Amino acid sequence: MAFLQVASFTLTPRLFPDEVRYTGTALATNISVVIAGGTAPYVATWLVQQTHDLRSPYYFVATTCLIGLVAIATMRKGLASDFAATGAR
């Protein structure tokens, strides 16, 4: 957990300009927990029931990781400063 939290706690605040940093960080963290963490037990149970394979939840975890890797790979350095420089609020 610490390995994942260190990356999240240092990266997420840098995605938002100062004016909305707390709100953006809170929303990003909580919405991702609700979507991925809240559905994980149900999806895992459904996958095992449908496939009769106890290893099938791996595909849900692997897909979630792949989405995360794509998101990280497409991030631009200095996103919050770009946002602030355009004057968008």
Descriptive tags:
4 helices; elongated
Brief summary:
This protein has 89 residues and is mostly helical.
Q: How would you describe this structure to a colleague?
A:
By secondary structure, the protein is mainly α. 73% of the residues lie in helices and 0% in strands. The chain is built from four helices and no strands. Helix 2 runs antiparallel to helix 3. The mean pLDDT is 82.
Topology, pairings included?
Elements: H1 2-11, H2 21-51, H3 57-73, H4 79-85
Helix pairs in contact: 2-3
Strand content: under 5%
The whole-number mean of residue pLDDT values reads 82
Poorly predicted ranges (pLDDT <50, ≥5 residues)?
A: none
Helix/strand/pairing category: mainly alpha
Topology pattern, helix = H, strand = E: HHHH
- Tell me, what's the shape? elongated
Gyration radius over CA:
17 Å
Give the N-terminus to C-terminus distance in angstroms.
34 Å
Helix content: over 70%
Total strand segments: 0
Q: What is the makeup of the main sheet?
A: none
Number of helices: 4
